[in-house]
Queue: 3 jobs
Job 1
Amino acid sequence: MSIRIRTPSLIRLRKSVDRTVLKESRALVEDFNRRGVLRGALTLGALTMLTGCDVSEEESVQNGLRAVSSWNDAVQAAIFRPDHLARTFSPSQVVKPPRFNAYFHAIEDVRPINGTTWKLELAGLIKDKRPWTAQQIYQLPEQELIIRHICVEGWDYIGQWSGPNLRAFLTRIGADLTAKYVYFICNDDFTESIDMASALHPQTILASKYAGALLADPFGYPLRLRTTVKLGYKNAKWIRAIEVTNTFRPTFWSKQGENWFAGI
């Protein structure tokens, strides 16, 4: 009979956590932004796993959290299923109008875009970089998605978006589909990016309509990203430029400490 040798846990701490240190770090945890509910849970978990560093030092805590976040991104990318389709719903379940959400909170702060002069600029690893007008985009074949929008804050709703499939659009403009990232610059200077595998997912579109009508100003007019494979904050609104690149650049929310991959 073989004897099983017990190996030490990679997770279990060798000594208990100093409770006074955790108390000292509470102010740092509570100082996180409005999305801190989920991040706070991660923070407290990370604090109990950090060994060899003083968690009362803000920079040490942040370095540890960044390491955990990067590991989480890598795991999500590894298990991502590029052809797995999310559940879809019926038009009767669609919420009208959609729930407003943006990093600046108030709907009154939305800066209206002049759709007659707006153009979508293209950059990076793209052969045809000619800009697109809204009317040109409206003439492209549309794909409709009736899917669940899931916010990192814990709420969700069923929405109905339509617009050109992103993979089809990237193919049309001669984008390098082997590149790593698709980067979005928005009218409010918000930035976001997604991995190429998610950009090529069958349920990722450039939405120009909601519930059959053109997007209203508060919800991303004239163009926004809509994908089933990412949390809500990854779906950039008011897009004014798209870049295909192999260079990773931090985005608005990743700079705030949110997971960059943010898969669902």
Job 2
Amino acid sequence: MNAPKLPRHEIATANGATPARPRRSPEQIARGALQNLERWSRAIAPPPPAKMLRPPIPAVVAALATLYVVIGSMFVFDAPASHWARHEPGWLRAAFEKITNLGLSGWFLIPFAAILLWLAAAMSPALSRRSRGVLAALAARFGFLFLAIGVPGLFVAIVKRMIGRARPYVGGGGHDDPFSYMPLVWRPEYAAMPSGHATTAVAAAIAIGAIWPRTRPIMWLYALIVMASRVLVLAHHPSDVIAGALTGAAGACLVRRWFAARRLVFYGHDLRADPAPSWRRVKAALQEAGFGT
């Protein structure tokens, strides 16, 4: 008489191996991903206590000083900077026309969004508790990066068109008028203040530096180069760039406090990033989720 056949996962368990996780259909993966994204969104949606969003006094003083510099730049630096940029060497303009594209938010938002979707699809109740915790920690970090860069960028994309400040190249006869405005026209040539590239670059420098402190020098060098490029290609005045930097810094710091209030990614008392999962645990979680070998 033949012995009854055991299911494959029971055979694996009997042999001392880790049982294979049952494969999920594409519909199950998509449904699980949507549920995970909804759950993660609910975790950060409610407003935190007001005291967590209240900026410290030094930050307020720095913001006011930066606003003073923005206003002063309109009168002192904007027109001379644009005049110089109009007469800069052609090779310099050509080089910075390429460099300035590194300030586009898509360089950050697209890969971060892709990683979040991938993590949402990989997360499953069938995983061990440790693996679910590792994937959730990664999702919180990349969710912070996405929002810390995307929220200030979205704000600027709307506000700059409401302000309607002319870009330096709009001035006729080779002369720039830093006080030319057409509010609410929603035209690209009247969307100079604040600079979206500067907002993205500074927000990225703060957000990525908050997660990985060792990257701060290279990220701030990147931000300064992008900010300078916007003036050199006649896309912005110096005051536009400074205003964008202020907006990016304020937005990224606000999102950081928002996450810290929920004890996500950062400690609430000093805003330091909490320890990330080790690479060994990340690798083990990915293997259990069906990725890697």
Job 3
Amino acid sequence: MSSIDKAGAFKLGDRVVKRLGYGAMQLAGPGVFGPPKDRGGAVAVLREAVAQGVNHIDTSDFYGPHVTNQIIREALRPYPGDLVIVTKFGARRGADASWLAAPSPQELTQAAHDNLRNLGLETLEVVNFRAFGVHGPVEGSIEAPLTALAELQRQGLVRHIGLSNVTPTQIAEGRKICDIVCVQNLYNVAHRADDALIDDLAHDGVAYVPFFPLGGFTPLQSSVLSDVARRLGATPMQVALAWLLRRAPNVLLIPGTSSLVHLRENLAAVDLALPDDACTALEEVGRAAAV
């Protein structure tokens, strides 16, 4: 039994994954574009994650583009039988490293074939459609792209469908088109807009996958988080992850790193017990940010 088993497990599609997974975005070059400085190091991080018991890896072929999926294939194929690789469609990269929306049926079909080829798979286990709000979810119908993705599911290229960067209204719309097995949105101790959504999804047995536990491209600055970490002899990331694990049983974590040291630190978050006064202080971070 690996130590991350302590975090528990939750359903993802028709599979069950450990609640502490790994996000592969940082394996690409700077700005999630081009190759990494140390490809061998990236391969080592992936292999160590799986060796430590991780069986849920989040990726996309627009990381690089293509680079991250190719590294995953090099590092892990033939894949362990319990490994669930989750990818994303709905964006592409410009030659200048820009992020561009790619929601048309043709673009989604191309994304399916690119992901299958670069990962070396015959079927994609879970595909999240990423709605293209730049600074967070933006209301608007997702019927057309999700209908196209459901068609790829009928063709057998995609097994399960999730949503990313979406609102509750869009999730409700999506559920009328196909079964939604997970929702992946920005959520952390300071960004709590999805509090009610997480609880609703937990009631329905649907996984919620928060990204950017420390703010991502705009790092979270919180003296409270830093103080709690210092008092517990932990890193701020460990505290953020431990708080998320406590938040709800359907929360699946995918912290990313290109460092073996940071990978091991992140996985060690399962051993961090947050005392009640620390949890109270962290709850205040979210309330203050919402004001």
